[in-house]
Structure prediction request, 169 residues.
Amino acid sequence: MPASNVATVYDAYSISKDQRGIYSIAKDKLIQTKIQAKIFATKGLNSLDLEVESFYSNVYLIGLIESEKYRNTLINLAKNTSGVEKIYTYLRLKQKNYHCNNLAILTNLKKELFTDKKINATQIRVSVVGCDVVFSGIIESKKQEEYAIWYAKHIQSVKNVYSFLRLLN
Prediction:
């Protein structure tokens, strides 16, 4: 099966498990796409180093920036996007070298999250920012967040764990 088909199947599965409802999902995806397009078009911002997530019109800007001046640029891009209600950031200055393998951290953590039946892992987004794990998304209980954080802290090379996880209302 081609990679694009796997991604499509995963996206369909994620949407079927998403408790936000199709209108909220579509609205959040539109906000996310608008901000990503602005990032791509802005000199000095690298869309490969930045992730944008949106849940219930709350935007999460996660990733690496070249210098502090781009923090405000990025936040202003999100502020000036229709539909955005609140902005959360986890932005770190990009370093030349990191003493970890971000892909290995991401792969190991996602494997743990998806095999744990107590966690609805399709609702939890995982970002790895220079050896730090950042969670965003929707959870059904604080216990799910505790499990996710526990797994992250027990992955080799993870320095810090930060959670933007929100309880489903």
